[in-house]
Amino acid sequence: MNNYKNLYKITKYSFNLLLISVLFIGTCFVVFTNHSNANANSVTVSNGKLFVNGQEFEIKGMNYNPVPIGLTQIDPTAATNDVPKIAQLGANTIGTYNLGKFDWYQTINITAGENFYNTLYPVAEANNLKIIVAYFSNQTIDWTNATQVARASAQYQELVIKAKDKPSTLMYLIGNEIFGRLSDNNQKKAYATWIGQMVNWTHTNDPNHPVTYADDALKNGLGWLSLYSSNLDIYSINNYEWATQSDLSNILAADSVAWPNKPILLHEFGTDSLDVPKWAEDESAQAAKVKDLVTNVQKVYDSNIFPLIGQVYFEYTDQWDKIGSPSLQDKDTGWPWLCTNCFDAKANEDFWGISRAVGAANANNRVLKSAYYALQQVWAPQTPTPIPTPLPTPVGNDTTPPTVSITNPLNASLVTNKASVSISANASDNVGVIKVEFYINNVLLCADTSQPYTCIWKVPKRVGAQFTILVKAYDTAGNVGTNTVSVISK
Fold first, then answer.
1. Alpha-carbon gap, residue 343 to 274, rounded angstroms
2. How many helices (H) and strands (E) are present in the chain, helices listed first?
3. Which of 207, 343, 182, 212 is CA-nearest to residue 278?
4. Residue 351: pLDDT band by 50, 70, 90 thresholds?
5. CA angle, corner 413, sides to 412 and 416, nearest 5?
6. Are strands 403-408 and 420-428 parallel, antiparallel or unpaired?
7. Which strand (E) or helix (H) includes residue 274?
């Protein structure tokens, strides 16, 4: 009997120990999964406007999906070279296609988006850019099939968990032009219901970032979303069927009537560079149209008549993979959908970028089109893109490089994150200094051609990050003198 009592005591003790262990592990898991990075932003929508940490944030975004020439998969390395140039446009946001695991048509490498995101978000944060973290859903699955829906849910949720504490995260985009591709109303209702469920899940697991869906110009999703996903924070539209400020206002007015008080993001608009009637490129016409379009969006935003939170231009690079062979920049007679945005009313995605497509891992050689500078004139009129000028041909016997030294900040000093730091340098030469360039982590920030040589740098919101400041001084003979210092953000 005593043996049974002892066995009972041992069993009871073991069970209590196991219960305590489970509760402890469960508590640790809850603490871990609810952990919030102090660097994450609080993004909210109120009264038809978007706010980041309580400050109004007007989205000036650039859609970016760098697929190299000859391929159909995204180049995960391109962001390192492209993102600084997107920032120099005056953009503050990058729109993405799909950054999580994703199996679409069974032709997409489901890890391609993840690999790209791992490169994208650090360089975006270094350039003070936000990211619309996109999961494009999937019109090929059966949205009434519990197993397939569970897989989509897991993919979306994994992406949110990965992105929610990153300072670059602005919002989540859960789908793009899906409703018009679904087979029947049962599928549309099921899909809209799923979106509502994922929005609820996001609000619970990441209350700091809103969720949006991007609808097509026909508004195939508007009614379904308003009925079954009314908790969606932002209604985004992809629309190329407008040209004037009045046209855009009419579109937004209709959307506001259909879904009152719902904030709206113009998620796609733009124009290509191919003149179909002439069967040749016309960069000047594209540039003029781009400038006109972004100016009209800005006027509508500034009017405060509609709940417009900003614009995301489509798009940064030509995409040769869209039509025909990905190894050729295919010309066609224009896509069948209406493109009032296009200067010739014909849409040609192979020519849609404001910069040229390049081969894999070759984004450093990407050529900017005239449209890039036209957009920059609207978004950043006071801060033109600093372009390194060609070095002059050495003359005479002058082989002595300039002497240059950074006087502020000092090497190994601390700089305050989010602060504006004035970088100063002294430079001299036996003949004459023609300019001094300032680089942050090898990315050109600005240039100055006269004493005192200075450049204003807004330190990214990253505590403990190390930055290398490089200055280059050029003389009239093409000789270059350099100096570097390293600083740490606090």
1. 9
2. 9, 21
3. 343
4. very high
5. 135
6. antiparallel
7. strand 274-275
Name the H helices within 76-145: 79-88, 112-126
> DSSP state, 469?
E
Distance, in Å, from the CA atom of 97 to the CA atom of 136, rounded to the nearest integer, reads 7
* E strands, 321-452, in order: 403-408, 414-415, 420-428, 433-440, 443-448
Q: What is the pLDDT of residues 363-388, one digit of tens each?
A: 988 899 999 999 999 999 875 544 44
Look up tokens 């809103």; give the residue: 210
What one-character DSSP code corresponds to residue 165? T
The identity of residue 396, as a single letter, is G
Give the pairing of strands 453-458 and 414-415: unpaired
Please name the residue that has the structure tokens 């997107």. 86
Neighbours of 424 (CB within 10 A): 17
CA distance 344 to 330: 17
Q: What's the rounded Cα separation, in Å, for the pair 233 and 196?
A: 10
What ranges in 209-358 are assigned the alpha helix state H? 222-228, 245-258, 283-303
Q: How big is the chain, counted in residues? A: 490
Identity of residue 52: V
Closest CA to 188 of 147, 219, 225: 225
387 Cβ contact partners less than 8 Å away, ≥ 6 residues apart? none
Indicate the DSSP class of residue 355.
Answer: B
User: Residue 365 and residue 225: Cα distance in Å, rounded?
Assistant: 43
Q: What DSSP letter does each residue of 360-380 carry, written as one string? A: TT-GGGPPBPHHHHHHHHHH-
Residue pair 242/341 in contact (Cβ under 8 Å)? The answer is yes
Q: Which residue is it, tokens 């409703």?
A: 179
- Enter the tokens of residue 441: 């982590």
Cα separation values, 457 from 21, 424, 438, Å: 51, 11, 10
Q: What is the dihedral of CA 145, 150, 156, 157, to 10 degrees?
A: 160
Radius of gyration in angstroms for the set of CA atoms belonging to the chain, rounded to a whole number: 26
310: left (phi over 0), alpha (psi -120 to 50) or beta: left
| Type of residue numbered 7 | L
Phi first, then psi, for residue 49 (nearest 5°) are -130, 160
Tens-digit pLDDT profile for residues 402-461: 999 999 999 999 999 888 898 999 999 888 887 888 899 988 887 777 777 888 888 988
A 10 A CB-CB count for 370 gives 18
Relative to beta strand 420-428, strand 453-458 is antiparallel
472 residue type, one letter: K
